[in-house]
Amino acid sequence: MSDDYEERKKLLEDLKRLVKSEQEDIFRILKETHSEYSENSNGVFFDVSKISSESFEKIKKYMEFCIQNRQNFTLREEEERKAQEILGAT
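The structure assignment produced for this chain is given below.
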């Protein structure tokens, strides 16, 4: 299988983990890049295999941003927890 297919498959799995505000940002990217999508009462749907390379790259970069933000948030929470332990111990 091609690398592009594998990357798009991974992106699809990553998209499932997004919170609502992040999903809305993906929708904005789709609209900005004039990608095809359908919308109904259950949400917005698009075919990851059919979006343009431009759309794919923008979504991929946004996903990397989301993942990095989550990692940074987790680190900050851990640092705060440690600081609270130290402050509570004195």
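Interim note for the steering committee: The beta strands are 38-40, 43-45. Residues 53-89 form the longest helix (37 residues).
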